[in-house]
Amino acid sequence: MKSYRSRIAVGLAVVGMGLISSCSELNKSSAPVALIVTTNQTLQQIDLAGNAAGSTSCDQPLGTVLMEVRLLQNPGDGNLPTDNRFNDVRITSYRVSYVRTDGGKLIPQPFTRSISALLTAGSAGQNLTGFLAFEPGALSQAPFAALLPQNGGRDPETGSSIVKMDIILEVFGETLAGEKVSGSTRIPLNFCNLCPTRGCF
Questions:
Q1: What is the DSSP letter of 197?
Q2: Among 39-48, 89-98, 105-114, which is the least confidently predicted range?
Q3: How many angstroms separate the CA atoms of 179 and 168, rounded?
Q4: 3-class SS at 35?
Q5: What whole-number distance in Å separates Cα of residue 145 and Cα of residue 7?
Q6: Which of 29, 82, 121, 126 could bridge 75 with an S-S bond, Cβ 3.0-4.6 Å?
Q7: Does the pTM exceed 0.85?
Q8: Contact, 71 vs 32, CB < 8 A?
């Protein structure tokens, strides 16, 4: 169980480019580029019982995350050479926070991590690797702990045996010209123990 939870904590480590979905948010900035963060989610449910009898293995990534820098301004009229190197973006950090979508209020503590990646403006994009969806030990604390049989098996705020929340991923960086940019995406997840529909899907 402990090793299963550790793997879920790092379960959103990106594996390959994946497909781009439409669940991203475009943040306004004064920079001539936009940082687009998209996800291709493969898991929507996490069974806290892990590999209990009859369950499907949950030891897999939640999905893939792609970061892309798009030019917002016309790079030129075609007559003059254009140098977009100063529009490339150095990624410096990401922040993970949570919001309940089931009416509950208890959520894990948000956290920020420093990272380093260089994104070329106008390129196909780059995966966000080594991304933590939860800090180690988070799935054994509130609000998830209440779903375990020894703790009653139900969320005290909603009375439900399922906790629903979105992971909010915000990525921060700046262009090589020094203009700050950011982008964000949401990852909806359901959490249950010995889920009615077994396994992770």
A1: S
A2: 39-48
A3: 23
A4: strand
A5: 17
A6: 82
A7: no
A8: yes
